[in-house]
UniProtKB/TrEMBL annotation:
Descriptive protein name: Uncharacterized protein
Disordered: region residues: 419-489
Biased composition (Basic and acidic residues): 427-449
Signal sequence interval, chain numbering: none
Record-annotated membrane-spanning stretches: 50-77, 103-124, 145-164, 170-190, 211-233, 317-336, 348-367, 387-409
Alphabetical list of InterPro entries matching this protein: DUF6350 (IPR045931)
Alphabetical list of Pfam families matching this protein: DUF6350 (PF19877)
Domain of life: Bacteria
Length: 489
C-alpha cells in the first residue's frame, strides 16, 4: 500500500479524506422566491368601506327588485302614473322588511319571507366578501363587519320608513331587520373566514345548534310535503281558480311572484298543521288535522290546498308523526356527540334538545303570522301559544325517548362487545408455565401437581446442558476441595 506521503496514493482515497472535514457543502433550493407576490390584505379603512357597501348594496338591491316588479305589473295591468307605481313598490318593500304596508284601505303586516330571505342572502354574500379582505388572524373583523353592515342597512331603511309610513312602520321594520341583518352578516362572515363561534364551546355543546337546525329542516321538509300533496290532491280546484281569475300573462306572472314570496310562510303553516295545532285564515277559522272551519277566502290558488270544511280524515293524523321525527333527529345528533354518556344522561340531553328545537320552531311560526287586511283576514297564520305548547311537548318527549333508547342500546352493545374480551382474558389467566417456559392448562384442585414421569422430565428439562469443559472444571473443583491445605513453614 502506498504511503500517505506518497504522491502516488489512490486518487479516490485522497478525495475521500479531503471530504471528511468539518464543513459539509450541499446545494439546496431557495425557500423564498424573489419577486413572488403573496396574498395582500387591504387596509382597515378599505375593508370597513366594503362592509358599509355590503349593507347599502343589499338594501338598494331589495328595493330595486320589489319596486321594479311592482312597476312592471302596475303599468301593464291598469293605467297609472310612475309615481303611484313607485309608491306601491316602496310600500311592499317595507312590508318585506317587516314594516308593513298600507295598500288602499287595507293594512298588511304579513311578511313575505321569500323576499326577506333573498335580502338576507344578499347581506350574507356581501358581508362575507368584505370579511375576506380583513386580516386573517384578527378576531375583530367579523364583529366589525356585522356592526357596520347592519348600520348601513338600517339607516336608509329607517329613513324611508319614516317618510313613507311613519314612526310605527319604521319601528317594526327596525326591530325585524335588527335581527335578520346581523344574523345573515354573521353567518356570511363566519362562512367566508371559516371561524365559527362554536369552536370555543365544549365538545358536547357544539352539536346543539346542529341538532336544532336539523329538527327545523325536518319540520320544513314535512311542511313542504303537506303543501305539495294538498295542491296535487286539489289540482282541479287550483285550475278552476286560475280560470276564474283570467289575469292574463302579466297578471299570472305577478300572481306567481306573490305566491313564491309567501311560499315559506305557507310551508311553515303546513308544518304547524302536521304538528297538530294548525293555523288560522282569519277570525273564527281554523285549519288542523282534527277539523277545518273556514270563512271567506281570497281567490289565491295556493289556498286551494286547504282541506274541506268539516272533521278531518283519519289519514291526516299520520302527519302528527312529523313532530316526533323532528325531536328524534335532534336527540340523535346530540347523543352521538356524547359517546360516553349514560342512558339517563342521553335521555336528559335528548329531551332538552327536543325542547329547544320546539321553541325555535315556535318562534319561526310566530314570525310567519300577520294580517292581510283589517277585516276577515286579520290574524292569519299560526298562533304562538298552541304551537309552543305542542311543539315543545311533542319534540321534547320524543327526544327524551329517543335518547333513552339510544343510551340503552349503546349500553347493551358495550356489554356484548366486552363479553368475549372478558372470556378471553379469563382463559388466558388459567394458563401456567412450567420451568421450561411451556404454557400448560391449570390443573384442578384434586388433580396432583405432577406425576413421577413429569417430575423427572421437568427436572431434566430445567437443567442446563453440560458440555465436556464444564464437566472437567467441575471435577477439578471437586478434587481441589478434597485435598488438605498445607501451611508453609
Amino acid at each position: 500500500m502506498a504511503s500517505l506521503l506518497s504522491p502516488r496514493r489512490n486518487r479516490g482515497e485522497s478525495a475521500t479524506h479531503r471530504l471528511r472535514g468539518d464543513i459539509d457543502l450541499a446545494a439546496t433550493e431557495p425557500t423564498v422566491v424573489i419577486g413572488s407576490a403573496g396574498p395582500t390584505e387591504l387596509p382597515t379603512l378599505a375593508w370597513m368601506t366594503l362592509a358599509a357597501g355590503a349593507g347599502l348594496i343589499s338594501v338598494l338591491s331589495g328595493w330595486v327588485l320589489v319596486t321594479g316588479l311592482v312597476v312592471v305589473g302596475w303599468l301593464a295591468a291598469e293605467p297609472g302614473t310612475l309615481g303611484q307605481a313607485l309608491s306601491a313598490g316602496t310600500q311592499l318593500w317595507l312590508l318585506a322588511n317587516g314594516g308593513g304596508a298600507t295598500l288602499g284601505s287595507a293594512s298588511v303586516t304579513l311578511i313575505p319571507w321569500g323576499i326577506t330571505g333573498l335580502v338576507a342572502w344578499l347581506v350574507a354574500r356581501t358581508a362575507g366578501y368584505a370579511a375576506r379582505q380583513g386580516p386573517a388572524g384578527s378576531p375583530t373583523v367579523t364583529p366589525m363587519v356585522c356592526i357596520i353592515a347592519t348600520l348601513s342597512y338600517l339607516v336608509p331603511l329607517l329613513g324611508v320608513a319614516l317618510l313613507a309610513g311613519g314612526p310605527w312602520p319604521a319601528l317594526r321594520s327596525g326591530m325585524v331587520m335588527l335581527v335578520v341583518v346581523p344574523v345573515a352578516a354573521a353567518w356570511g362572515c363566519c362562512h367566508a373566514r371559516q371561524t365559527w363561534p362554536t369552536g370555543a364551546w365544549p365538545a358536547w355543546s357544539r352539536a346543539v345548534p346542529r341538532a336544532v337546525i336539523a329538527a327545523l329542516l325536518v319540520m320544513f321538509a314535512g311542511g313542504a310535503a303537506v303543501l305539495a300533496i294538498g295542491l296535487v290532491v286539489n289540482l282541479d280546484r287550483v285550475t278552476a281558480l286560475l280560470t276564474a281569475l283570467d289575469a292574463g300573462i302579466v297578471g299570472n306572472v305577478a300572481l306567481l311572484v306573490g305566491q313564491l314570496a309567501y311560499a315559506p310562510n305557507a310551508v311553515v303553516w303546513a308544518a304547524c298543521y302536521a304538528l297538530g295545532p294548525g293555523f288560522t285564515l282569519g277570525n273564527g277559522s281554523i285549519v288542523s288535522p282534527a277539523a277545518t272551519e273556514l270563512g271567506a277566502l281570497p281567490s289565491i290558488p295556493m289556498l286551494a290546498a286547504v282541506p274541506d270544511v268539516g272533521p278531518g280524515s283519519v289519514s291526516h293524523l299520520w302527519w302528527l308523526a312529523l313532530g316526533v321525527a323532528a325531536g328524534a333527529v335532534a336527540a340523535t345528533l346530540v347523543v352521538l356527540a356524547r359517546p360516553s354518556a349514560r342512558y339517563d344522561e342521553t335521555a336528559l340531553v335528548g329531551g332538552l334538545s327536543g325542547v329547544l328545537a320546539g321553541g325555535a320552531f315556535s318562534v319561526v311560526a310566530w314570525a310567519t303570522s300577520g294580517d292581510l287586511g283589517s277585516d276577515l283576514l286579520s290574524g292569519v297564520g299560526p298562533e304562538l301559544v298552541p304551537v309552543l305548547v305542542m311543539a315543545t311537548s311533542t319534540m321534547g318527549l320524543s327526544g327524551a325517548l329517543c335518547g333513552l333508547v339510544l343510551g340503552l342500546w349503546r349500553r347493551r352493545t358495550a356489554r356484548v362487545t366486552a363479553a368475549p374480551v372478558a372470556a378471553k382474558g379469563s382463559g388466558e389467566s388459567k394458563k401456567v408455565a412450567d420451568p421450561s417456559g411451556v404454557e400448560r392448562p391449570k390443573r384442578s384442585e384434586n388433580e396432583p401437581e405432577h406425576t413421577d414421569e413429569e417430575t423427572v422430565a421437568l427436572t431434566h428439562r430445567s437443567r442446563p446442558p453440560i458440555n465436556a469443559a464444564t464437566a472437567d472444571s467441575a471435577d477439578d473443583d471437586d478434587e481441589g476441595a478434597d485435598e488438605p491445605t498445607q501451611q508453609i513453614g
